Amino acid sequence: MHRKIIPDIVNDQTICAMATDETARQAAEKMVDRNVAAVVILDADGKLLGIVTERDLTRRVVAVGLAGDETKLGDIMTPNPDTLGPNDSALDALELMRIRNFRHLPVLDDGRVVGMVSIRDLYAAVKVELEENIRETEAFVFGDRYGA
Amino acid sequence: MHRKIIPDIVNDQTICAMATDETARQAAEKMVDRNVAAVVILDADGKLLGIVTERDLTRRVVAVGLAGDETKLGDIMTPNPDTLGPNDSALDALELMRIRNFRHLPVLDDGRVVGMVSIRDLYAAVKVELEENIRETEAFVFGDRYGA
Predict the structure, then answer these.
(1) Which residues neighbour B73 within 8 Å (Cβ) at sequence distance 6 or greater?
(2) I want to staple A115 with a disulfide (CB 3.0 to 4.6 A). Which of A10, A52, B42, B45 is the partner?
């Protein structure tokens, strides 16, 4: 079975959404609280504007000597990020991440952000898929009911 | 074939090594320069003391309002990290990362740090391994020389 982004990977996930005028420190605090590595930046209408990850905080705040308290997310976000759709396959998503060197991608459904997937989530799903594929091939060879 | 950490994953890799008295900002700058997400912290004899990742910079610097210029790596590193050996398998390493929620592990050979592997490196290797496994199983079923 080919796993799809929804419901196999993203499933009732709460979104970590922030606004452009919140600070890098607030984003880092939220990442700690929610144990995530990326937040989405939305406008007042809930439209996706950008994404901020641990990598952005490292490269666009710490590495350049900015103060996290004074740096607005609007100034350090990656604007207009690539996104996934609910029916995209986990394998295609992983391939997109590999090629573009992303570790997180927001999932949009009908224009709204409904989740965020990480390379870790996708890897877990794809591993299960490949293992199932092996088992099915073996079952075809040896019969699928060893005990019967 | 089961892929091993050396030479299949880590292969002639340069180490990003720093000292405890260097700063968070210097580590972030090095991560940008070298396009990595983690550095190892060594003592003067080259012994592994700890590891500092983008996650550590996010959680132990930005989230708590520290200045990257004034924060020493010795104060924010994860001391005595888990490590891999050169003969560990990629699958075992990935399983360790999944269970312990790590994304990077240093590789030690005879007490020296010889590399750093990321969950991304390992995923790529394991994916190839599982695909080969499927191909070999299929070759066993259908014959491995379709054109012969």
Answers:
(1) B18, B19, B20, B21, B22, B23, B24, B26, B27, B39, B41, B50, B52
(2) A10
Please indicate if any CB of chain A lies within 8 Å of the CB of B135.
Answer: no
| Higher pLDDT among residues A14 and B56, named by residue | B56
Tokens 């590891």 -> residue: B51
How far is A84 from A87, CA to CA, in rounded Å? 8
* Topology of domain A5-141, CATH: CBS-domain (3.10.580)
Q: What letter would DSSP give residue A108?
A: E
Residue ranges of the domains in chain A?
5-141
Query: Across chain A, what does the average pLDDT equal?
Result: 85
- What does the DSSP 8-state code read for residue A61? I
Predicted ipTM beyond 0.85:
no
B8 touches A at CB < 8 Å: no
* CA quadruple A133, A135, A137, A143: dihedral, nearest 10: -150
Alpha helices in B14-118 (DSSP H): 24-34, 54-57, 73-76, 90-100
- Rounded-to-integer distance, Cα A36 and Cα A8, Å: 19
Is pLDDT at B27 greater than 80 in this prediction?
yes
> What is the pTM assigned to this prediction?
0.81
Pairing relationship of beta strands A38-42 and A17-18 according to DSSP bridges: parallel
Segment A17-45, tens digit of pLDDT: 999 999 999 999 999 998 889 999 999 99
Q: Sheet containing A78-79: which strands, arranged edge to edge?
A: A17-18, A38-42, A48-53, A78-79
Chain A residue at shortest CA distance from B128 = A130
Residue B20 in this model has a pLDDT that exceeds 90: yes
Of A55, A68, A127, the CB nearest to B37: A55
